[in-house]
Design goal:
Strand content: 5-15%
Oligomer: single chain
Number of helices: 12
Order of helices and strands: EEHEHHEHEHEHHHHHEEHH
Strand order of the largest sheet: 3-4-5-2-1-6
């Protein structure tokens, strides 16, 4: 029997029929926008289910007691990362076996994740339905039978099964500002704002406007193994930032002022900024890096930042130690980020 409430489906499997578990596991097809999340048994970590979600999305947390992913032990940070990847990867349906073993808190976390991403959620409740918590007890219709369960897995969800590259919000201002613009050529008030300590401003136009004027610099190629290692990074801001450094060989400080507006709507180009905006080059984004930058931008938008804020600002604090730690784990990419790299 399946109990359906809005975009949440609870499949009640009192006999713990192997058919339902097997069908749920076989339904895991991230490329089609559907993933199966297997909760880690008896884990006491508050963020354990979010980590399971990240694992199902193909992300791997760095191991060890001094892991650079330690900040993902925070429940909010871990679920936000999972939501950003879900949006960027176009996840439309999430299936969770053995949901009856989840605590009320983790069920609430799953429901909050669904609200944030808009994906469909199917929970396998493999015990009598009388144990359903209040959050799952409200239903609108009932469906029973194996055929109906297979149909639920096969039907399209609310999000298309493709990567989500929403267009960036438009930026006010003329689209004819030069890519290379010296401080002396800028209007007096703009030049003062861009150099004012503690309040960086961005007189440059968006990446979309710049792309209409100049051709983006080609991306520097990297080995597929290195691209795979970057794609497996769990935090979208870390993955996005290191991917930019890999295909541009820019210095870390060039990311400090990278805004939502500096990534084109289709994530095909990104604009970096130098001190005083004297040199703000446009770079082509290779295919392997597009989902990673889409994840970084989704993370930025899910936190309700305005488009003028720096996308990578949260990982640039404390001398960017999280970025440096991850870069040290990828020596073949030569992203050691020496001291002083925060200055472009």
């Amino acid at each position: 029997m399946a109990l359906v409430y809005s975009d949440v489906t609870i499949v009640v499997d009192e006999q713990d029929d192997l058919f339902y578990t097997r069908a749920a596991l076989q339904a895991h097809r991230p490329g089609e926008g559907r993933i199966t999340v297997q909760p880690t048994p008896a884990s006491s970590s508050p963020a354990a289910l979010a980590h399971d979600m990240l694992y199902a999305l193909g992300k791997r947390l760095a191991p060890g007691p001094h892991s650079p992913d330690v900040w993902l032990d925070s429940v909010n940070a871990a679920w936000l990362a999972a939501a950003a990847w879900g949006v960027a990867m176009g996840v439309r349906h999430v299936v969770v076996p053995r949901a009856h073993l989840l605590t009320l808190r983790r069920i609430d976390q799953l429901l909050a994740w669904r609200e944030l991403t808009g994906a469909q959620l199917t929970l396998l409740w493999q015990k009598p339905p009388r144990g359903l918590p209040p959050a799952l007890a409200r239903v609108e219709r009932r469906i029973s039978g194996r055929d109906q369960f297979e149909a639920i897995l096969a039907e399209p969800g609310p999000i298309p099964a493709r990567s989500s590259f929403p267009p960036a919000p438009p930026m006010a201002g003329p689209a004819t500002v030069a890519v290379r613009q010296s401080p002396s050529q800028q209007p007096r008030e703009t030049r003062a704002a861009s150099l004012r300590p503690g309040r960086p401003a961005h007189p440059c136009t968006s990446a979309m406007a710049t792309a209409q004027l100049v051709q983006a610099a080609p991306a520097i190629g990297i080995a597929s193994e290195e691209a795979d290692a970057l794609a497996a990074l769990a935090h979208p801001l870390i993955a996005g930032a290191l991917s930019v450094l890999a295909f541009t060989r820019a210095r870390l400080g060039s990311l400090r002022f990278t805004r939502d507006l500096d990534i084109t709507g289709d994530v095909s180009a990104i604009k970096l900024h130098g001190v005083g905006h004297w040199h703000c080059p446009l770079h082509a984004v290779p295919a392997w890096a597009r989902p990673l930058l889409a994840g970084a931008r989704a993370h930025h938008r899910l936190t309700a930042h305005p488009p003028e804020d720096g996308v990578f600002a949260p990982v640039m604090v404390a001398e960017a130690r999280h970025l440096r730690a991850h870069a040290g784990r990828l020596p073949r990419l030569d992203l050691s980020l020496p001291a002083g790299a925060l200055v472009p």
